[in-house]
Amino acid sequence: MWNRPRFDLKVRLTLRVAAVSAACFAAISAYFLITADRAVHARIDGIAAIVAKTLELQQGKVQWVNSPRSDFPNLDPVSAFVMTPGLCLAFRGANGEMLQRFCSGAPTPANAPPQAFAAFYRGLFDPGREAARPVIARGARLGDAVVWFDPAVQTAEAWHEAGRLMTVLAITLPLLCALVYAALARALRPTQVVRAGLERIAANDLNARLPPFDLAELSAIRDVFNHLAASLATALSERSELTRRLIALQDEERRHLARELHDEFGQSLAAIRALAASASQTAAQDCPALLGECDSIARTATGMMETLRGALFRLRPPDVDELGLVASLQGLVSGWNGRSHGQTRFDIRFEGAFESLPASISANLYRIVQEALTNAAKHAGATKVGLHLAMGANEIALAIDDDGRPNDAAVKSGMGLLGMRERVAAMRGRFSFTAGPDGGSSLRVVIPVSPADGQLEALEDAA
Questions:
Q1: Are residues 303 and 212 in the same domain?
Q2: Which of 125, 195, 301, 422 could form a disulfide with 273 if both were Cys (CB 3.0 to 4.6 A apart)?
Q3: What is the DSSP letter of 399?
Q4: Could you tell me if 301 and 326 lie in one domain?
Q5: Where is the chain membrane-spanning (predicted)?
């Protein structure tokens, strides 16, 4: 299965908020730069209008006084009032020649703007663009009043404003991200409760329920989760009860079939063997040639009785209630060791006391072990099978390991793994089966038990 990379939701949302905030700061910075550029041009347009009006007044005064000495144009009076660092004033004649020019010196900036910013600003705003107003006297155009800012000064001032915004961004953005992350962590804290509930459901703890939440969305999830858990618990309980009844019915059918085979087929075979023995005695006196056929019939009947005895043992094992689980399993393992003729070695090991184990659990464990040993010996071709049964305070653990080859027939034959799984589910236990790639398999069964189980079993038997 392809696993896609997973990211923390809080980190992802915080990064998105940071990206949006940075974009907003960038938009605000652009807005301030555009506004500042417009303000500069509005200012130099106003100064150009003032210079043009002043020059027109000077020209009118010269003509009114009729002074032979003309000090037109004279930018000194207006420059004393409007000059600022980096500002330039000039009068350009009608022929395009600069007749007078004043420029205010600009101090060296403490932090010169980077070349990249200067190039970007020059390309976007064209700093140093001049503003010109015509100077008109008596209907004649004498020239133009020209005003502009030094591009370096204007770029430095823009960088100063942008730097202030960048400082605010550098301080505000990390703080904003931290606050957003903390708020998201607090808002998403209930998702950990939801995850814990799902993990409990995955671990077959169907009593898991989610607590109430403040958020409407999480409350809807809680209602669906709790309803699903309750429905699943009811369904599994009904399924376990149905499985238990089906298994009990199956065992009852096996016992009935075993009785029928023992009473009918077994007695018939015994009668055939007795008749063969009687016929053998008669043939020994009257017809010795029939002795071989009589002995053959007797041997065939004996072999059929042995096969029937094995089938009866599998259909109706020794009464676990009378012999106990330990003795029954020891007899089962001894029987397999005897029938395998050394081809398969079966070992069994017990840990704990099993005397107080309920009869229903003992019977189901015996059936599980019986089916597992049959699969390992007949279908997996194992040469060594190990069985370990341990009794704990609140559970009983069964482990069966073999060195057989992987074979699907072991799963499909007889009751198979499905039947064992159903028996374990009926006892509300846990079942796992793993087969190695190079052979061998491991079966694990864990059944919960408590002293109350034995008392309940005794009350049911008494009823």
A1: yes
A2: 301
A3: E
A4: no
A5: 13-34
